[in-house]
Amino acid sequence: MNRSLLDLLRKGGYILYARHGEATVGIDQPNLNFWNCFTQRNLSELGRRQAVYYGQILRNLRIPISYPIIASPFCRTIETAQLAFGSANVQIDPFLFEIYRLDENLSSAEQKRILDSLDSRLEIKPPQGSNKIIIAHSFPKGISLGQIPNMGTVIVKPLGEGHGYEIIDKLSLSDLAKL
């Protein structure tokens, strides 16, 4: 993996949008309830290890992170963020549930509303000298940040509100470990 990407991340100014760890336990129920993990798919043991490893990699690489870590309201995303960065460092963003909904049969207007809202969030620069981390979901193929493997990370360079963003790289967990 290229050294210059690591140097850029150490300077800060990026959003690391990561998919949660492997979730194979249970299924998302039609009566999904964010307060009841039994109504959702949850992290497997591998997924828990991936989450811990993710946090260790970022600390070992000395990549500066701004807190709180932003997580989707699903148990699997919250647990991923807590295992990687500590329970006290996680903030839930209900909007990130909308990313999950992109897999549903939405109207083009509803899909556009969700993607426009996401885009406006990805334009916001993190605090000087740090990187923002979002733990959420993959996207359907060809939409927004695209398909993301378990604990994969999309490196996003926000260009400022109203100016868009650039996708710098997409890294699997093993790619990140090789930085």
TrEMBL record:
CDD domains tied to this protein: HP_PGM_like (cd07067)
Pfam family for this entry, one: His_Phos_1
Domain of life where this protein originates: Bacteria
InterPro entries: His_Pase_superF_clade-1, His_PPase_superfam
Entry protein name: Histidine phosphatase family protein
Organism of origin: Clostridium aciditolerans
